[in-house]
């Protein structure tokens, strides 16, 4: 017996800001995404940097697809060699914002699906400690298009404390107020999720998985290690 699955679930209605914070977890359902994430975490497979970057891209592709289901579409018609086909097209490509450098392969995965996206890049890193369990997030570079009324997808593969994402988001708001903001991560910590939920409740969070905890160096446990180093080598 075969069955036909119709990929409906698209809407032509413009979306409004999401309140409250909603979270989607890609690996909650059994799917091939679990294989990609398992390879990303596996210390033996991690030796192959190209495979590591490709798996980050693949999680980016799958999250891009999931996010695409919640974007606004318009009805359209295309002409085939045999006739006319009714279809739906994205009303406007999103803006993809990436925190350098670990997010670059993840960003590339999103670009494979949102190939007409506009792009923002932000250099942000953990600076000096400002308390026993706090550090300053330093930003040294930011470039972004006009964000007014756009769909913004802000991505960072490892959502650890949530402080970088919060700081970058507020810096991006200087370029305009997005109609909707999606935050995408490959692995999140429960602490990071709670932090963003309290401070960025207007956004929607999409993650590959939520892990156990943060360690004393703010690394996600069990996590996968340092995503930037594993993609591009040690600094
Ligand atoms: N950044 C990483 O690359 N890994 C973590 O676990 C946390 C932040």
Automatic annotation (TrEMBL):
This is Uracil phosphoribosyltransferase. It catalyses: UMP + diphosphate = 5-phospho-alpha-D-ribose 1-diphosphate + uracil. Catalyzes the conversion of uracil and 5-phospho-alpha-D-ribose 1-diphosphate (PRPP) to UMP and diphosphate. It comes from Runella slithyformis (strain ATCC 29530 / DSM 19594 / LMG 11500 / NCIMB 11436 / LSU 4). Belongs to the UPRTase family. InterPro entries: PRTase-like (IPR029057), PRTase_dom (IPR000836), PyrR_bifunctional (IPR050137). Keywords: Allosteric enzyme, Glycosyltransferase, GTP-binding, Nucleotide-binding, Transferase. Coiled coil: none annotated. Pathway: Pyrimidine metabolism; UMP biosynthesis via salvage pathway; UMP from uracil: step 1/1. One of its GO terms (molecular function) is uracil phosphoribosyltransferase activity. NCBIfam families: PRK00129.1 (NF001097).
């Amino acid at each position: 017996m075969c069955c036909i699955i119709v990929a409906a679930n698209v809407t032509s209605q413009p979306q409004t800001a999401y309140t409250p914070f909603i979270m989607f977890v890609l690996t909650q359902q059994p799917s091939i995404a679990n294989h990609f994430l398992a390879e990303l975490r596996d210390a033996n497979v991690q030796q192959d940097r190209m495979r590591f970057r490709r798996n980050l891209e693949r999680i980016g592709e799958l999250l891009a697809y999931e996010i695409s289901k919640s974007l606004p579409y318009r009805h359209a018609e295309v002409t085939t060699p045999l006739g006319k086909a009714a279809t739906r097209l994205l009303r406007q490509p999103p803006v993809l914002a990436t925190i350098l450098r670990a997010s670059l392969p993840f960003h590339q995965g999103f670009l494979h699906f949102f190939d007409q996206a506009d792009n923002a890049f932000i250099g942000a890193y953990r600076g000096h400690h400002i308390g026993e369990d706090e550090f300053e997030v330093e930003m040294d570079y930011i470039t972004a298009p006009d964000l007014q009324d756009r769909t913004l997808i802000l991505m960072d593969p490892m959502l650890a404390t949530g402080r970088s994402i919060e700081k970058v988001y507020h810096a991006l708001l200087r370029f305009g107020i997005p109609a909707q903001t999606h935050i995408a991560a490959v692995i999140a910590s429960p602490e990071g999720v709670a932090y963003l939920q309290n401070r960025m409740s207007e956004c929607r969070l999409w993650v590959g998985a939520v892990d156990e905890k943060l360690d004393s160096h703010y690394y996600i446990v069990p996590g996968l290690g340092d995503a930037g180093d594993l993609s591009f080598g040690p600094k």
